[in-house]
């Protein structure tokens, strides 16, 4: 009798009841790349079959993503905007009860959309100036009014501006705080995650609380100011990839997939976008997974730039509540 061969699972159901594609395209690059290049990369991705796109107010790619979506609709690459899953993020300069809804409305206008699928608090701190830049100065950071900001996020859902809401860069401790007052629990925590920073503790916590983990910099954020080449330079990963006949990037993305998280590799190159999708029809062996789980662990984005003697964060441990 023929065995029924299941299709690979490429979606997850969030605690909001909405589904989210596990593979998403990241659109953050600093310095910001020419937007015609970014637009054509997003269009290539849609052509290849990507349906999930991750942006943020601070990335300056919202208008570009919006243009690419309109082009894709015009060209008939997608039948409807509803076929896509779009995430954007609240910049920390707007992390305040009454600024959240206006900030999302501004993002929606930039995107040319009526709603986003997922809206995230970008980082658990408040910035005391209106500059939208990754060049955050530690002395401009103050504590986040978590309750007020989360109430603003919940209002986004009630107004139909966001289907799901969540957070990014939150520790177990900060997630517990949100959960203590949330009427809508966070659906997602988007965090740095790759074989050299596997987030075991946070993933256990999130699994217990029904919060989906999404991996940013799943390749270690090569070329990004918050990333490094450490993942691509890792000898053990090179060996696993070579023995398997896969690329190192594919090994990392397949690993993320097998952990049950969603993953958001950034590439503006059509071949690499394609390569990064080709991870659903093979698997890592027990031995390969064992080798990968034994890799020494350390965060790449430590947030040293956010630390100062008399600022909000006095040490890197403070930034991440000891999860370093
Ligand atoms: P590029 O945009 O030129 O493809 P991360 O997703 O961890 O943030 O990593 C993104 C970095 O990794 C970018 O510099 C991107 O460059 C590069 N990259 C993405 N996919 C691949 C791949 N399959 N092989 C090599 N480099 C890749």
TrEMBL record:
GO terms for biological process: secondary metabolite biosynthetic process. One of its GO terms (molecular function) is oxidoreductase activity, acting on the CH-OH group of donors, NAD or NADP as acceptor. Substrate binds at residue 122. InterPro entries: AKR (IPR020471), AKR4A/B (IPR044497), Aldo/ket_reductase_CS (IPR018170), NAD(P)_OxRdtase_dom_sf (IPR036812), NADP_OxRdtase_dom (IPR023210). The active site is at residue 59. CDD domains: AKR_AKR4A_4B. Residues 23-294 form the NADP-dependent oxidoreductase domain. Keywords: NADP, Oxidoreductase. The keyword NADP applies. The record marks 89 as: Lowers pKa of active site Tyr. This is NADP-dependent oxidoreductase domain-containing protein.
């Amino acid at each position: 009798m023929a065995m029924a061969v299941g299709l690979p699972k490429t979606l997850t159901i969030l605690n909001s009841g909405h589904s989210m594609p596990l593979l998403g395209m990241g659109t953050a690059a600093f310095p910001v790349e020419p937007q015609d290049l970014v637009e054509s990369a997003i269009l290539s991705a849609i052509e290849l079959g990507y349906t999930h796109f991750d942006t943020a107010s601070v990335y300056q790619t919202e208008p570009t993503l919006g243009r690419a979506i309109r082009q894709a609709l015009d060209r008939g690459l997608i039948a409807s905007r509803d076929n896509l899953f779009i995430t954007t993020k609240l910049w920390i300069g707007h992390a305040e009860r009454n600024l959240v809804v206006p900030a999302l409305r501004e993002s929606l206008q930039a995107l040319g959309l009526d709603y986003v699928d997922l809206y995230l608090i970008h980082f658990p701190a408040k910035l005391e100036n209106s500059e939208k830049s990754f060049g955050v100065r530690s002395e401009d950071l103050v504590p986040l009014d978590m309750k007020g900001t989360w109430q603003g996020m919940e209002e986004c859902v009630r107004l139909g501006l966001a289907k799901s809401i969540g957070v990014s860069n939150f520790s177990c401790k900060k997630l517990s705080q949100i959960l203590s007052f949330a009427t809508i629990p966070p659906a997602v925590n988007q965090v740095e995650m790759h074989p050299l920073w596997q987030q075991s503790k946070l993933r256990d916590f999130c699994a217990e609380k029904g919060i989906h983990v999404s991996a940013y910099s799943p390749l270690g954020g090569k070329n990004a100011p918050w990333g490094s080449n450490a993942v691509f330079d890792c000898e053990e990963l090179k060996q696993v990839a070579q023995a398997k006949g896969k690329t190192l990037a594919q090994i990392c993305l397949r690993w993320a997939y097998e952990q049950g998280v969603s993953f958001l590799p950034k590439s503006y190159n059509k071949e690499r976008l394609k390569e990064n999708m080709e991870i659903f029809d093979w698997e890592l062996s027990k031995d390969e997974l064992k080798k990968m789980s034994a890799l020494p662990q350390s965060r790449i984005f430590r947030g040293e730039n956010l630390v100062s003697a008399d600022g909000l964060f006095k040490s890197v441990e403070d930034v991440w509540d000891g999860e370093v």
